[in-house]
Amino acid sequence: MPLFTLAFVLILLLPTPPDAGQAPAPPASDPSSTKTPAADTDPVRRSVGDVLSRLRNRYRTATTYRDTGVSVSDLGSHVSELRFGTVFIRKGGFRWWFHPADQVAHTYQVWSEDRSAWMSWWGLDRRLRKDPDLSGAIAGPTGISSGVVQVIPVMLVEDPKDCSLLSGLRTQPHVARDTVEGVPCDVISGAWRERSVKIWVDDTGALRQYTESYDLDPGRMADAHPSDPSMQRARQVPKFHVEQRVTYRPVFDEPVKLEETRFTPPEL
Fold first, then answer.
1. Where are the alpha helices (DSSP H) in the chain?
2. According to a count of CB atoms within 10 Å of the terminal CB, is the N or C end of the chain lower?
3. Where in the sequence is the domain holding 214, given as residue range(s)?
4. Cα–Cα distance for residue pair 207/211, rounded to 1 Å
Protein backbone atom coordinates (compact mmCIF):
# COMPACT_ATOMS: atom_id res chain seq x y z
CA MET A 1 0.00 0.00 0.00
CA PRO A 2 1.38 3.44 -0.83
CA LEU A 3 3.22 4.99 2.09
CA PHE A 4 2.51 8.61 2.93
CA THR A 5 5.89 9.17 4.55
CA LEU A 6 7.41 11.92 6.58
CA ALA A 7 9.42 13.14 3.61
CA PHE A 8 6.21 13.90 1.73
CA VAL A 9 4.72 15.70 4.74
CA LEU A 10 7.75 17.95 5.09
CA ILE A 11 7.95 18.77 1.38
CA LEU A 12 4.26 19.70 1.25
CA LEU A 13 3.79 21.57 4.50
CA LEU A 14 7.19 23.12 5.19
CA PRO A 15 9.16 25.57 3.02
CA THR A 16 11.05 24.04 0.09
CA PRO A 17 14.22 25.28 -1.62
CA PRO A 18 14.02 27.11 -4.96
CA ASP A 19 13.79 25.15 -8.23
CA ALA A 20 17.02 23.39 -9.13
CA GLY A 21 16.67 23.52 -12.90
CA GLN A 22 14.45 22.25 -15.65
CA ALA A 23 14.19 18.52 -16.31
CA PRO A 24 13.33 17.40 -19.85
CA ALA A 25 9.62 16.88 -20.31
CA PRO A 26 8.71 13.23 -20.82
CA PRO A 27 6.93 12.18 -24.02
CA ALA A 28 3.17 12.47 -23.84
CA SER A 29 1.09 9.35 -24.16
CA ASP A 30 -2.17 9.04 -26.01
CA PRO A 31 -4.87 8.85 -23.32
CA SER A 32 -7.60 7.93 -25.78
CA SER A 33 -6.24 4.68 -27.22
CA THR A 34 -5.85 1.53 -25.16
CA LYS A 35 -5.20 -1.68 -27.05
CA THR A 36 -6.47 -4.52 -24.90
CA PRO A 37 -7.65 -8.11 -25.06
CA ALA A 38 -11.35 -8.73 -25.55
CA ALA A 39 -13.17 -7.01 -22.72
CA ASP A 40 -15.23 -8.89 -20.16
CA THR A 41 -18.67 -7.55 -20.99
CA ASP A 42 -20.65 -10.00 -18.86
CA PRO A 43 -23.23 -7.84 -17.07
CA VAL A 44 -23.20 -10.18 -14.07
CA ARG A 45 -21.25 -8.68 -11.19
CA ARG A 46 -17.87 -10.35 -10.80
CA SER A 47 -16.38 -11.38 -7.49
CA VAL A 48 -13.50 -9.53 -5.85
CA GLY A 49 -11.26 -12.47 -6.68
CA ASP A 50 -12.23 -12.32 -10.36
CA VAL A 51 -11.49 -8.60 -10.55
CA LEU A 52 -8.11 -8.87 -8.82
CA SER A 53 -7.15 -11.84 -11.00
CA ARG A 54 -8.02 -9.84 -14.11
CA LEU A 55 -5.94 -6.92 -12.84
CA ARG A 56 -2.87 -9.02 -12.03
CA ASN A 57 -2.99 -10.87 -15.34
CA ARG A 58 -3.28 -7.65 -17.34
CA TYR A 59 0.00 -6.26 -16.02
CA ARG A 60 1.79 -9.61 -15.82
CA THR A 61 1.23 -10.26 -19.55
CA ALA A 62 1.65 -6.73 -20.96
CA THR A 63 4.24 -6.65 -23.77
CA THR A 64 4.45 -2.85 -23.65
CA TYR A 65 2.81 -0.22 -21.49
CA ARG A 66 2.63 3.53 -21.09
CA ASP A 67 0.55 5.83 -18.97
CA THR A 68 0.16 9.33 -17.67
CA GLY A 69 -1.64 10.14 -14.48
CA VAL A 70 -2.42 12.52 -11.65
CA SER A 71 -2.29 12.07 -7.88
CA VAL A 72 -4.27 14.59 -5.82
CA SER A 73 -3.86 14.60 -2.04
CA ASP A 74 -6.23 16.77 0.01
CA LEU A 75 -4.63 17.49 3.40
CA GLY A 76 -7.38 19.83 4.57
CA SER A 77 -5.30 23.01 4.63
CA HIS A 78 -3.34 22.09 1.52
CA VAL A 79 -4.00 20.25 -1.75
CA SER A 80 -1.05 18.63 -3.51
CA GLU A 81 -1.16 17.58 -7.17
CA LEU A 82 1.50 15.32 -8.68
CA ARG A 83 1.89 14.38 -12.36
CA PHE A 84 3.50 11.09 -13.33
CA GLY A 85 4.06 8.72 -16.24
CA THR A 86 5.40 5.29 -17.14
CA VAL A 87 6.98 3.72 -20.23
CA PHE A 88 7.68 -0.02 -20.32
CA ILE A 89 8.90 -2.67 -22.77
CA ARG A 90 8.70 -6.26 -21.55
CA LYS A 91 11.87 -7.28 -23.40
CA GLY A 92 13.53 -3.89 -23.14
CA GLY A 93 13.61 -0.77 -21.01
CA PHE A 94 11.57 1.00 -18.38
CA ARG A 95 11.14 4.61 -17.24
CA TRP A 96 8.95 6.21 -14.61
CA TRP A 97 8.80 9.90 -13.74
CA PHE A 98 6.85 12.28 -11.54
CA HIS A 99 6.86 15.92 -10.50
CA PRO A 100 4.66 18.31 -8.50
CA ALA A 101 2.18 19.90 -10.86
CA ASP A 102 3.73 23.35 -10.48
CA GLN A 103 7.40 22.26 -10.19
CA VAL A 104 8.53 20.49 -13.36
CA ALA A 105 12.12 21.30 -12.39
CA HIS A 106 11.70 18.87 -9.47
CA THR A 107 11.03 15.89 -11.76
CA TYR A 108 12.16 12.54 -10.38
CA GLN A 109 13.21 9.98 -13.02
CA VAL A 110 13.75 6.22 -12.58
CA TRP A 111 14.92 4.23 -15.61
CA SER A 112 16.68 1.12 -16.88
CA GLU A 113 17.51 0.06 -20.43
CA ASP A 114 17.78 -3.67 -19.72
CA ARG A 115 16.72 -4.01 -16.04
CA SER A 116 20.16 -5.28 -15.05
CA ALA A 117 21.09 -1.83 -13.70
CA TRP A 118 18.79 0.94 -12.46
CA MET A 119 19.36 4.68 -12.50
CA SER A 120 17.48 7.51 -10.80
CA TRP A 121 17.80 11.28 -10.77
CA TRP A 122 15.92 14.01 -8.90
CA GLY A 123 15.85 17.56 -10.18
CA LEU A 124 15.78 18.91 -6.61
CA ASP A 125 19.19 17.59 -5.52
CA ARG A 126 20.54 16.84 -9.04
CA ARG A 127 22.22 13.60 -7.98
CA LEU A 128 22.55 10.56 -10.22
CA ARG A 129 21.95 7.31 -8.31
CA LYS A 130 22.62 3.70 -9.31
CA ASP A 131 20.88 0.62 -7.91
CA PRO A 132 20.98 -3.08 -8.76
CA ASP A 133 17.21 -3.54 -8.81
CA LEU A 134 13.88 -1.77 -9.02
CA SER A 135 13.18 -1.89 -5.30
CA GLY A 136 16.34 0.07 -4.57
CA ALA A 137 15.68 2.59 -7.31
CA ILE A 138 12.12 3.38 -6.17
CA ALA A 139 12.88 3.55 -2.45
CA GLY A 140 13.91 7.21 -2.78
CA PRO A 141 10.77 8.55 -4.47
CA THR A 142 8.29 6.43 -2.46
CA GLY A 143 7.49 9.11 0.11
CA ILE A 144 7.72 12.19 -2.08
CA SER A 145 5.50 10.59 -4.73
CA SER A 146 2.97 9.72 -2.02
CA GLY A 147 3.55 6.05 -2.77
CA VAL A 148 2.53 6.19 -6.44
CA VAL A 149 5.87 4.69 -7.55
CA GLN A 150 5.11 1.52 -5.60
CA VAL A 151 2.11 0.58 -7.74
CA ILE A 152 2.45 0.31 -11.54
CA PRO A 153 6.26 -0.12 -11.67
CA VAL A 154 6.08 -3.08 -9.29
CA MET A 155 3.17 -4.70 -11.15
CA LEU A 156 5.03 -4.45 -14.47
CA VAL A 157 8.64 -5.19 -13.54
CA GLU A 158 8.30 -7.50 -10.56
CA ASP A 159 4.96 -9.17 -9.88
CA PRO A 160 1.45 -7.77 -9.36
CA LYS A 161 1.06 -9.81 -6.17
CA ASP A 162 3.92 -7.78 -4.65
CA CYS A 163 2.29 -4.44 -5.43
CA SER A 164 1.83 -2.42 -2.25
CA LEU A 165 -1.71 -1.47 -3.33
CA LEU A 166 -2.81 -5.12 -3.26
CA SER A 167 -0.57 -6.76 -0.65
CA GLY A 168 -2.38 -7.05 2.67
CA LEU A 169 -5.59 -5.45 1.36
CA ARG A 170 -8.69 -6.57 3.26
CA THR A 171 -11.55 -6.33 0.80
CA GLN A 172 -15.30 -6.16 1.19
CA PRO A 173 -17.24 -8.87 -0.69
CA HIS A 174 -19.32 -6.52 -2.83
CA VAL A 175 -18.05 -5.29 -6.21
CA ALA A 176 -19.69 -2.04 -7.35
CA ARG A 177 -19.80 -0.53 -10.84
CA ASP A 178 -18.70 3.02 -11.72
CA THR A 179 -16.93 4.94 -14.49
CA VAL A 180 -13.60 6.78 -14.59
CA GLU A 181 -13.39 9.35 -17.38
CA GLY A 182 -16.21 7.51 -19.15
CA VAL A 183 -14.61 4.04 -18.84
CA PRO A 184 -16.80 1.41 -17.06
CA CYS A 185 -15.06 -0.15 -14.06
CA ASP A 186 -15.53 -2.63 -11.26
CA VAL A 187 -14.90 -0.97 -7.90
CA ILE A 188 -13.37 -2.85 -4.97
CA SER A 189 -13.59 -1.36 -1.48
CA GLY A 190 -11.40 -2.43 1.39
CA ALA A 191 -8.91 -1.45 4.04
CA TRP A 192 -5.18 -1.60 4.61
CA ARG A 193 -4.07 -1.07 8.20
CA GLU A 194 -5.91 2.12 9.19
CA ARG A 195 -6.68 3.26 5.64
CA SER A 196 -9.92 3.03 3.68
CA VAL A 197 -9.19 2.07 0.08
CA LYS A 198 -11.10 1.88 -3.20
CA ILE A 199 -9.74 0.48 -6.48
CA TRP A 200 -11.27 1.01 -9.93
CA VAL A 201 -10.44 -1.75 -12.49
CA ASP A 202 -11.84 -1.58 -16.03
CA ASP A 203 -13.25 -4.56 -17.91
CA THR A 204 -9.87 -5.31 -19.52
CA GLY A 205 -8.07 -5.46 -16.18
CA ALA A 206 -6.42 -2.03 -16.32
CA LEU A 207 -6.12 -0.02 -13.12
CA ARG A 208 -7.91 3.27 -13.72
CA GLN A 209 -8.01 4.81 -10.27
CA TYR A 210 -7.54 4.24 -6.56
CA THR A 211 -8.32 6.32 -3.49
CA GLU A 212 -7.10 6.26 0.08
CA SER A 213 -8.51 7.96 3.18
CA TYR A 214 -6.64 8.09 6.48
CA ASP A 215 -5.39 10.19 9.41
CA LEU A 216 -1.72 11.07 9.75
CA ASP A 217 0.11 12.18 12.89
CA PRO A 218 3.57 13.61 11.99
CA GLY A 219 4.51 13.90 15.66
CA ARG A 220 4.04 10.16 16.10
CA MET A 221 6.30 9.59 13.12
CA ALA A 222 8.95 11.83 14.69
CA ASP A 223 8.73 9.81 17.92
CA ALA A 224 9.84 6.76 15.95
CA HIS A 225 13.09 8.53 14.98
CA PRO A 226 14.19 10.44 18.12
CA SER A 227 17.88 10.51 17.15
CA ASP A 228 17.31 12.09 13.73
CA PRO A 229 17.16 15.91 14.03
CA SER A 230 15.72 16.34 10.54
CA MET A 231 12.78 14.10 11.40
CA GLN A 232 11.90 16.30 14.37
CA ARG A 233 10.69 19.01 11.98
CA ALA A 234 7.53 16.94 11.68
CA ARG A 235 6.52 18.08 15.17
CA GLN A 236 5.71 21.46 13.61
CA VAL A 237 2.89 19.82 11.66
CA PRO A 238 -0.35 18.97 13.54
CA LYS A 239 -2.28 15.77 12.96
CA PHE A 240 -4.42 15.91 9.82
CA HIS A 241 -6.69 13.85 7.55
CA VAL A 242 -5.62 12.80 4.04
CA GLU A 243 -7.82 12.06 1.03
CA GLN A 244 -5.75 10.82 -1.91
CA ARG A 245 -7.01 10.08 -5.43
CA VAL A 246 -4.71 8.61 -8.11
CA THR A 247 -6.01 8.40 -11.69
CA TYR A 248 -4.36 6.61 -14.64
CA ARG A 249 -4.66 6.78 -18.42
CA PRO A 250 -3.07 3.47 -19.48
CA VAL A 251 -2.15 2.23 -22.96
CA PHE A 252 -1.23 -1.46 -23.38
CA ASP A 253 0.61 -3.32 -26.12
CA GLU A 254 1.16 -0.40 -28.49
CA PRO A 255 4.61 0.26 -30.03
CA VAL A 256 7.10 1.84 -27.63
CA LYS A 257 10.58 2.90 -28.74
CA LEU A 258 13.56 2.00 -26.57
CA GLU A 259 14.61 5.67 -26.67
CA GLU A 260 11.48 6.54 -24.70
CA THR A 261 12.78 4.54 -21.74
CA ARG A 262 16.05 6.49 -21.58
CA PHE A 263 16.82 9.66 -19.67
CA THR A 264 19.97 11.79 -19.68
CA PRO A 265 20.37 14.14 -16.70
CA PRO A 266 21.17 17.74 -17.70
CA GLU A 267 24.69 17.55 -16.25
CA LEU A 268 25.66 14.48 -18.31
1. 6-13, 48-60, 134-139, 141-144, 152-157, 218-223
2. C
3. 44-257
4. 12
Query: Domain count of the chain?
Result: 1
CATH number of the domain to which 94 belongs: 2.50.20.10
Has residue 130 been placed in a domain? yes
| DSSP symbols for 174-222 | EEEEEEETTEEEEEEEEEETTEEEEEEEETTS-EEEEEEEEEE-HHHHH
Question: What span, in angstroms and rounded, lies between the C-alpha atoms of 51 and 55?
Answer: 6
pTM, to two decimals:
0.80
Q: Over its length of 268 residues, how does the chain's per-residue pLDDT go in tens digits?
A: 443 344 444 444 443 333 333 333 444 444 444 454 444 445 445 799 999 999 999 999 999 999 999 999 998 888 999 999 999 999 999 999 999 998 999 999 999 998 889 999 999 999 999 999 999 999 999 988 989 999 999 999 998 888 888 888 899 888 999 999 999 999 999 998 888 999 999 999 999 999 999 887 777 666 766 777 766 676 777 777 899 999 999 999 999 999 999 999 987 5
